[in-house]
Amino acid sequence: MPPANQQPSTNPASNLDFFSIPQSFLLQIGTASILLLLITGKSTVRALEAIGEASEELLRGDRLPNLDFPEDSETNQT
Fold first, then answer.
1. How far apart are CA 36 and CA 30, in angstroms?
2. What does the alpha-carbon distance between residue 74 and residue 78 come to, in Å, rounded to a whole number?
3. Which residues are CB-contacts of 56 (< 8 A; sequence separation ≥ 6)?
4. Distance between CA 58 and CA 78 in Å, rounded?
5. pLDDT by residue (tens digit) across 39-54?
6. Mean pLDDT score, 52-65
């Protein structure tokens, strides 16, 4: 059984520099990054919608050239 008057061990304290940063600063960084992510997401959706509409206009049927298909009677004669 160890003696009752034993001194506590003198281990050096671990260096946790992360916890020395104020919580309000961490909250500000987290909030700014979330807002930036939301804004980026919305602008990405708008850009993809614009690309979709532009490709839809490009591939619309009235702007494509008319193709002359051979008649059935012409293909059966050969």
1. 10
2. 7
3. none
4. 37
5. 999 999 999 999 999 9
6. 80
The encoded tokens of residue 40 equal 């980026």
What is the C-alpha to C-alpha distance for residues 42 and 31, in angstroms, rounded to an integer? 17
> How far apart (Å, rounded) are the C-alpha atoms in residues 13 and 1?
27
pTM: 0.50
Average pLDDT, the chain: 80
How far is the C-alpha of 61 from the C-alpha of 64, rounded, in Å? 5
Burial 32-57 (b: 16+ CB within 10 A, else e): eeeeeeeeeeeeeeeeeeeeeeeeee
Amino acid, res. 54: A
Q: Which string of DSSP letters, residue by residue, matches 10-51?
A: -PPPP--GGGGS-HHHHHHHHHHHHHHHHHHHHHHHHHHHHH
